[in-house]
What we know:
About 55% of the residues lie in helices and about 0% in strands. The chain is flat and about 45 Å long. The chain has helices at about 30, 35-45, 55-70, 70-80, 80-85. The chain has a domain at about 30-85.
Amino acid sequence: MDGAGNHHSDVLKVPANIMLRFLPPYYSPELNPQENLWEEIREKIFKNYALKSIDDVYAKLEEAALYIERNPAIVKSLMTFPYVIRAI
Length: 88
């Protein structure tokens, strides 16, 4: 599990036969390839500005989804680590 603050819960009941391990942040991009995709979306679609309304956020999310759909080669290059290829 990554260590993001919103991924923690005091009310989660973990079964006795399961042990949760949190990854250090510097390991997350390689172990969680989707982090690289989110970084691409932040750089290309959301950039560095504040949106004025929730409708603007939805429009940007739709733009991001279309960007991903139209650029499969970029997605593949960002998400494909050797261990992913070996698992297929």
